[in-house]
Specification:
The complex is a heterotrimer of chains A (about 180), B (about 625) and C (about 100).
Chain A lengths: L1 H21 L3 H21 L3 H25 L14 H26 L14 H10 L3 H22 L12
Chain B lengths: L1 H25 L1 H26 L4 E11 L2 E9 L1 H24 L6 H20 L3 H19 L6 H32 L4 H11 L2 H18 L8 H4 L5 H10 L4 H8 L1 H6 L1 H24 L3 H21 L3 H28 L17 H15 L5 H15 L3 H26 L6 H6 L5 H16 L11 H10 L12 H24 L10 H7 L4 H50 L4 H21 L1
Antiparallel strand pairs in B: 1-2
Helix pairs in contact in B: 1-2, 1-4, 2-3, 2-4, 3-4, 3-10, 3-15, 3-20, 4-5, 5-6, 5-10, 6-8, 8-11, 8-13, 10-15, 11-15, 13-14, 13-18, 14-15, 14-17, 14-18, 15-16, 15-17, 15-20, 15-21, 16-17, 16-18, 16-20, 17-18, 17-22, 18-22
Chain C lengths: L4 H21 L3 H26 L3 H31 L13
């Protein structure tokens, strides 16, 4: 049962990933990425990470992808004229081969270390997953947590500074 | 007392720094600063002299200069009888010459620069004589060499002057090379350069062969600095410098550094009688060679220069036969009378509008009483006429040579004394007596100002009187004073001629020379051209310069040119151009990567990651 | 039936490699950016897998941090893309060769 779910979700994720790369239209790419995120959320559930599965859907599939689509629309990249040129043929072949080598290497290493080991089949790690993560966040990882909040604040301010149009006269605008 | 010693050294340095840095603003004042700095040193040196005469002695390290493994070299000073005699001589003569320079260098655009160099010289010389180890001595040694170079080429816009400076520097380099090798040998065998340790260990650790090697290498250095055969050629050319410089550096002080060094290293020379013999023979050969050249030269300063070389030869005879005290004594008296004669010659030049050729002078005594009389005093002193200073010291050297068994050297020394008296009085008769040969110059001649004549008088008094520190011969104050440090080897008067007879012969030699000069003067043959072959040989200075040119200079020139054509053009340029091409080529290759295209960079990064993973997974 | 760890790891590696491929062959800055997100998620999957395998909560906390940082990164990155588009009227990274002097 678990294996079936795994293969289904894995297949969705892989296909969505390939489509993400293959689509010429950025809107389609974005939608396939959403699909990949959903599949990953399903895998998180299989791994008993319920909280993260929820966050994955809310933050990634929800907030972040909406932001992407919003920018795509804003810049009006969906129309046919905005279709990008892709890299040359040789380069594409080379990159795919390189990716294959990468997978082979990582797979080889994984296989050597964990061949056949099942993901722990004991009782679910946390009966109360959200509770456990919350505890960890506010005890052991309190400092990184605060740092992350600071990063978000900095990003917030940085984005506003960067995107704000300079209204104080055209001269100071770059170009 | 250490503070006093350091102050003695630092005053001239401070003077040099002030004059060197602010000289262009100070103008006249730079002379006062320079003279005051040396004057203070002089006063303090006399204070040290009193202290040392009262039994004081000092040997202290101030600062560890080099510490490498077990080898240590310090900046340290040794004050004993030997160094005290030297600092007193140096500072006293320097002070008088500074005063003289006021008058002599007035109106020279390089007035401040001159005093800066002169002070720097005094500083270096004091370091040289006060150092308590060979390495620091070498620092002073190089310092005086540098100052000598700067001052010979002081009027650098004159090509002959800058050439003479270079000649002095290069010839000195050869000597310094020997000196350095000697120090290296000392370090490798004894592991130290400090005098006290070297002299304590040398008799225990050195075989006679090694001791001879060290002593001879040090003597090579002394030959360069003190203008001994075959490295004497720079000194006559050094007369291109201002006369006070010739007087101070190239007569009274710097050129005696070699004698000082040999006397300082007397333990090493005692260990190696062979080295001592070499020193004595080189000394006497130089003394005769230079004296013969001086017989015919007509340039007033060059005659004095050759005379200096000759007298330095006598000093080396003294230290070579083991009579270190006699050598230092002669150094001491020579500083006075030779300094005096140079200054007097400068005074003559001053009066004769920088004319150096004695054939245009004559009869100047009437116009320049002070200069003439003081020159007479100096000449009598160098000719060895009692009771002037030169008599006592030169006699002591000759007696020591005789007593040490080197009768041949003694005989040659006496012959040299005849020559010395002759060329000196030839100079006097040609310059101060007889009829003026150049009416025009004679009319304009005048006595020099007081600040030039005062040092002349002081030095003349010195030349007349300082000899008495060595009276009675062999047992005077200076012998007792130096007996500890310079370890005078006393040879008992056994057999042969008695002391009185030796002295008598010396005096006779001097009188003979003077008488001969007088006869030729009366006959009007002084300075006359001669077709005599020997005369010609002497005028060309035994062709030594020509021989050097043919044997050393020309082959080196040829070799350099050949090297320039082959080695430089092909090997060196080839390497340089090849490197250039290599860099250019590799730059071309690397720029292929620097496309500025971010995806390409990312691609290379991933290739790198794959490569690293391959390496990691392999392990 | 339990799923072996290896499966998850290989899946993660494949997703990562797909992301790399996208970054290297696409020229649209936004798409490249999305591919980077996919790579980040591949790593997240690895973290969660190992957290499960080792029975530790820390892995999940790290994923949480990764998500937060990537949210910040997306915000900043998209702002850069907008600024870039405003100045150059293109998102083709091949055209943007500011790194070359």
């Amino acid at each position: 049962m678990e294996q079936i779910f795994f293969f289904v979700f894995a297949a969705i994720a892989l296909v969505a990933g390939v489509l993400l790369v293959a689509f010429r239209n950025p809107v389609y790419s974005a939608l396939s990425l959403v699909a990949a995120f959903f599949a990953l959320a399903g895998l998180f559930v299989l791994l008993n990470a319920y909280f993260l599965a929820a966050v994955q859907i809310i933050v990634y599939a929800g907030a972040i992808m909406v932001l992407f689509l919003f920018v795509i629309m804003l810049l009006n990249l969906g129309h046919a004229g905005a279709l990008e040129r892709v890299a040359g043929k040789y380069r594409r072949v080379a990159v795919v081969l390189l990716a294959a080598v990468l997978v082979a290497q990582l797979g080889f290493m994984a296989g050597r270390h964990w061949a056949g080991t099942p993901v722990s089949d004991e009782a679910p790690l946390f009966t109360d997953n959200v509770n456990a993560i919350g505890k960890l966040l506010y005890t052991r990882y309190l400092f990184p947590f605060e740092v992350v909040s600071l990063i978000l604040l900095v990003a917030l301010i940085g984005v506003m500074v960067m995107v704000k149009r300079d209204r104080g006269g055209g001269e100071s605008r770059s170009r | 007392m250490l503070t006093v010693v350091i102050l003695i050294i630092l005053f001239p340095l401070a003077g040099a720094a002030v004059n060197g840095l602010f000289g262009h603003r100070l103008r006249e004042a730079s002379g006062y600063i320079g003279a005051a700095a040396v004057g203070l040193s002089c006063v303090l040196s006399l204070r040290v002299l009193l202290w040392v005469a009262g039994g004081g002695e000092l040997n202290e390290n101030v600062y560890t200069w080099i510490a490498a493994g077990s080898f240590k070299a310090a900046v340290g000073f040794q004050v004993d009888a030997l160094s005290t005699i030297m600092i007193v001589t140096v500072t006293a003569i320097s002070f008088l010459i500074h005063i003289y320079s006021f008058g002599y260098m007035r109106n020279d655009p390089g007035f401040a620069r001159f005093f800066a160099y002169l002070n720097l010289f005094v500083f270096s010389m004091l370091v040289l004589v006060l150092a308590n180890n060979y390495l620091l001595m070498f620092v002073g040694w190089e310092g005086v060499g540098l100052c000598s170079y700067l001052l010979i080429g002081f009027w650098y816009e004159r090509k002959s002057a800058s050439d003479a400076g270079k000649k002095a520097f290069i010839v000195n380099r050869i000597g310094d090379f020997g000196f350095l090798l000697g120090i290296f040998l000392m370090v490798s065998y004894l592991g130290t350069v400090q005098y006290t340790e070297v002299f304590a260990k040398a008799p225990l650790l050195l075989s006679t062969g090694v001791a001879t090697a060290i002593a001879l290498l040090l003597f090579v250095g002394a030959c360069g600095k003190s203008a001994q055969f075959p490295l004497y050629v720079w000194l006559p050319d050094a007369m291109e410098g201002p006369t006070p410089v010739s007087s101070l550096i190239h007569a009274a002080t710097m050129v005696t550094a070699g004698v000082y060094m040999v006397a300082r290293s007397n333990v090493l020379y005692t260990l190696s009688p062979a080295a001592g013999t070499v020193v004595a023979w080189v000394g006497i050969a130089t003394a005769l060679l230079a004296a013969t050249i001086a017989l015919v030269n007509t340039d007033i300063k060059r005659v004095l220069a050759y005379s200096t070389v000759s007298q330095l030869g006598y000093m080396f005879v003294g230290v070579g036969v083991g009579a270190y005290t006699a050598g230092i004594f002669h150094l001491f008296t020579h500083a006075f009378f030779k300094g005096l004669m140079f200054l007097a010659a400068g005074s003559v030049m001053h009066a004769m509008q920088d004319e150096l050729d004695m054939r245009k002078m004559g009869g100047l005594l009437g116009k320049m009483r002070v200069t003439g009389v003081t020159f007479w005093v100096g000449a009598l002193a160098i000719a060895g006429i009692p009771p002037l200073a030169g008599f006592w010291s030169k006699d002591e050297i000759l007696v020591s040579a005789y007593r040490s068994g080197n009768v041949a050297i003694w005989a040659l020394g006496v012959a040299g004394a005849v020559l010395t008296a002759f060329y000196m009085f030839r100079l006097i008769f040609m310059t101060f007596h007889g009829q003026p040969r150049d009416r025009h110059l004679y009319e304009h001649a005048h006595e020099s100002p007081y600040n030039m004549t005062a040092p002349l008088v002081s030095l003349a008094l010195g030349s007349a009187l300082v000899g008495f520190v060595g009276v009675p011969p062999g047992h005077g104050w200076i012998d007792a004073f130096l007996s500890d440090t310079a370890g005078a080897a006393h040879h008992p008067a056994s057999g042969g001629l008695s002391g009185g007879m030796l002295v008598g012969i010396s005096i006779l030699a001097g009188l003979l020379g003077i008488g001969f000069a007088y006869r030729m003067h009366r006959a009007g043959r002084l300075g006359a051209a001669s077709s005599n072959a020997l005369h010609g040989l002497l005028v060309r200075k035994w062709y030594v310069d020509e021989i050097y040119h043919a044997v050393v200079v020309r082959p080196i020139h040829r070799l350099s040119q050949a090297l320039a054509r082959v080695l430089d053009a092909m090997v060196v340029d080839g390497i340089v151009n090849g490197l250039g091409l290599l860099v250019k080529g590799s730059g071309w290759v690397v720029t292929r990567f620097q496309s500025g295209n971010a995806p390409t960079y990312a691609l290379w990064m991933v290739i790198g990651v794959v490569a690293v993973l391959y390496y990691v997974s392999g392990n | 039936m339990a799923v072996p760890v290896t499966y998850y790891l290989i899946l993660s590696a494949m997703l990562f490699a797909i992301g790399v491929t996208g970054v290297l062959i696409r020229r649209n800055a936004i798409v490249i950016f999305m591919c980077i997100e996919l790579m980040l998620n591949a790593v997240n999957l690895l973290f969660v897998t190992m957290a499960r395998y080792m029975g530790s909560g820390s892995g999940q906390v790290f994923v949480f941090f990764v998500m937060a940082v990537s949210a910040a990164e997306v915000a900043v990155g998209l702002a850069i893309i907008i600024a870039l588009y405003r100045n150059r009227q293109t998102l083709d990274v091949g055209e943007v060769n500011l790194l070359k002097w």
